[in-house]
Specification:
It is a single chain. This protein has 296 residues and is of the alpha+beta class. It has two domains: 108 residues, no CATH class; 130 residues, no CATH class. Strands 4, 5, 6, 7, 8, 9 and 10 form a seven-stranded mixed beta sheet that branches. A three-stranded mixed beta sheet has the order 1-2-3, with helices on both faces. Strand 5 and strand 6 form a beta hairpin. The radius of gyration is 24 Å and the shape is globular. The termini are far apart. About 2% of the residues have low confidence.
Length: 296
């Protein structure tokens, strides 16, 4: 094999190697990394411009790139645990490689960085919400009366409710939001369901996260709610929902749904309702509400 052939083969292999880039999404994280002498950037905007150029170059070369959220605090902890020098580019490379497996990531598909950044942050929030809710469910332990795993029972209950909600929803695309209020903050999960002529498609990861947050609200009897918006061509959007009550769901009245959507969250002032939207009561889920909590 000639030297030219070897270079050609290396170029082919580089195109087939998937890479991950750890991205500092905001000024605060960027400033935290500037304490390392080996991190040579001194301007966040210029750094982002350089990253975007690198992403475009790799895409033009046919390389697949995944973008991960780089957290300086997690990086410092990683280096401490592994006995690595944080002021060394190879340490950042090792941390980024781990992010590709464990952290929130998104594929670069040619989109502007201004679109990728908020999507990556949203993905990080989603993952953190799911991990936190999962941890709290696991800590509930077993029922003192029957020995049943309370977290697992709540998840099964939430899964059943989600199936009933989707089965009774009107045709069309559905957007569901579940919120659970509790210390230290409110957890929010969203689920998008596409329905084309009865062919229902949803993201399994979204569904898992949504069900976990709903299960946590049911198991802990925390204040919360679930709303759904169904959209179909040629028809007004239908919006309805429930509050979390007694290990189940209590229907909201049409007036309560209207008030929730037409009140500014921060000021409490009324805002104009959307046109072509029907705020209504939810359909019957076809079940008998269980007794309060996990009782026997």
């Amino acid at each position: 094999m000639t030297h030219t052939d070897s270079r050609t083969m290396r170029r082919v292999l580089r195109r087939e190697i998937a890479g991950t880039i750890g991205l500092l999404t905001d000024e605060h994280d960027f400033r935290a990394m500037r304490r390392y002498r080996s991190f040579t950037f001194d301007d966040h905007a210029a750094y982002l411009k350089h990253v975007e150029g690198l992403l475009r170059t790799r895409a033009l070369q046919g390389s697949h790139t995944t973008v991960a959220l780089f957290d300086p605090e997690e990086y410092a902890e990683f280096c401490t645990q592994k006995g690595l020098d944080p002021d060394n580019p190879s340490s950042r490379t090792r941390f980024t490689a781990r992010l590709a497996v464990t952290g929130p990531t998104l594929p670069y598909e040619g989109q502007p960085l201004s679109d990728l950044l908020p999507a990556l942050v949203d993905e990080a929030v989603r993952q953190a919400t799911w991990e936190y809710a999962t941890t709290l469910l696991a800590r509930l332990g077993d029922c003192a009366s029957c020995g049943e795993d309370l977290g697992r029972a709540a998840f099964a209950r939430a899964s059943d409710l989600l199936v009933r909600i989707l089965d009774t929803a009107p045709p069309g695309n559905r957007h569901l939001v579940c919120s659970v209020t509790g210390p230290p903050e409110t957890l929010v999960a969203a689920l998008h369901v596409a329905d084309t002529d009865g062919d229902v498609k949803l993201d399994e990861t979204e569904a898992l996260e949504f069900t976990t947050v709903l299960a946590l609200g049911l198991a802990t009897e925390s204040p919360g709610g679930l709303v759904i918006r169904a959209s179909a061509p040629g028809n007004p959007d239908r919006v309805y929902g429930w509050r979390l009550r007694a290990y189940g769901l209590e229907p909201l009245t049409a007036g309560e749904v209207f008030d929730a959507y037409c009140t500014d969250v921060e000021s409490g002032d009324l805002i104009s309702p959307e046109s072509n939207v029907d705020y209504c009561e939810p359909p019957d889920l076809g079940e008998v509400q269980p007794a309060q909590g996990h009782n026997h």
